[in-house]
Amino acid sequence: MKILVASHTYIIDLNCEKLRALSQLEQNLEVTVVVPQKWQPGGVQNRIIETHYHQQGKFRLVPISNFHQNHQSLMAFGYDLISLLRQFRPHIIQVEQGSKSLAYSQMIALNKILRLQAKNVFFTWWNLPYQLKFPVSLLEKYNLRHSDGIICGNQEGAEILRQRGYKGQIKVIPQLGVDERVFKRQYQPELAKKLGIKPEEFVIGFVGRFVPEKGLLTLFDALKILSDKPWKLLLLGRGELELELRQKARENNWEDRIIFRESVPHEQVAQYINLMNTLVLPSETTYQFKTFGSCGWKEQFGHVLIEAMACQVPVIGSNSGEIPHVIGDAGLIFPEKDGKALANCIIKLMEKPDFAQYLGEKGYQRVTAQYTNKALAKQQLDFYKEIVSS
Length: 390
Known about the structure:
Blueprint (H helix, E strand, L loop, with lengths): L1 E5 L10 H7 L6 E7 L1 E2 L9 E2 L3 E3 L2 E6 L1 E2 L8 E2 L2 H9 L3 E4 L6 H12 L5 E6 L11 H10 L3 E4 L2 H9 L5 E4 L16 H7 L6 E8 L6 H10 L5 E8 L3 H10 L6 E4 L4 H8 L4 E4 L4 E5 L2 E5 L5 H8 L4 E4 L4 H5 L4 E3 L4 H13 L1 H18 L2 H17 L1
Parallel strand pairs: 1-2, 1-9, 2-6, 9-10, 10-11, 11-12, 13-14, 13-16, 14-15, 16-19, 19-20
Antiparallel strand pairs: 3-4, 5-6, 7-8, 17-18
Helix pairs in contact: 1-14, 7-12, 10-13
């Protein structure tokens, strides 16, 4: 089976691990990944990423000229895509730019014009209801009508597509897995000593953006209830809330109990997670529905959860978006924005170390079975086979 996947996501080599694993599952598999030749991440001025051809066994990454360098939906590929499609002749074409992607419409049209007879698939993370104006609404209808299958990163995204009239096959699989070679249980006594963490202190951890929707203010509300407990808070990341969080730390005399660390290289994140007695993801939904659209955010997955679970660190998450589906019965869930409920979850892990260890082991088992790159690749291949045979 020949599989072609197109997305700007794979300009980062680390993000290709699932697709590399996919190419190795069976002898007859070939995976070609199409990426934009130039990309401007986040629209940051004077920062252009230029991609380069790379091949490793039956996996290859092919840069293709592109129009629009920083907008997922508006990006389209140049004429050199045609020669690639003619040469490769894929059985599956998957575009990971969402339901209203211009690049996906382009792939659908070329699939038909070149008589490739490939199955059309797209991936989306979007998990909030929305409305579209003309002509984008027509673009999405065209894409949905010609889709042989859809992969959603979360359950609510699949439900929304059903509501929008899609009746074909949908599979819920996250876009990226966890690398169990990096994220694994490893004690970090030297790093703990460097950060001033004592063995008797219960380390509550957070990894991510310091923004209101990540629920950090609710986490601080929970800490007030735990003021007489021997805890430390390890915050790994950065963002607009940092000054407010530092101010709250001063107001509560927590300056020696809260450790701020700027974002570190991804390969070092596992070291910090391994210092934690629990990782907390207290995300909060912010959503407004308008007559001609919607705005807001809801947790689309929570990748740091599976990284912590791979390290056998018990996790606590709010019930925002996909978090309860990711954690399942391998962690604790609390109602979003409920600081008291979050505090109770933390106390439960503090006072019941055997239960905390049990959750850590259960989380590890869940990640190994469902969320490693190899496990996700197998799920994706099974879905492709269903589509091809239907």
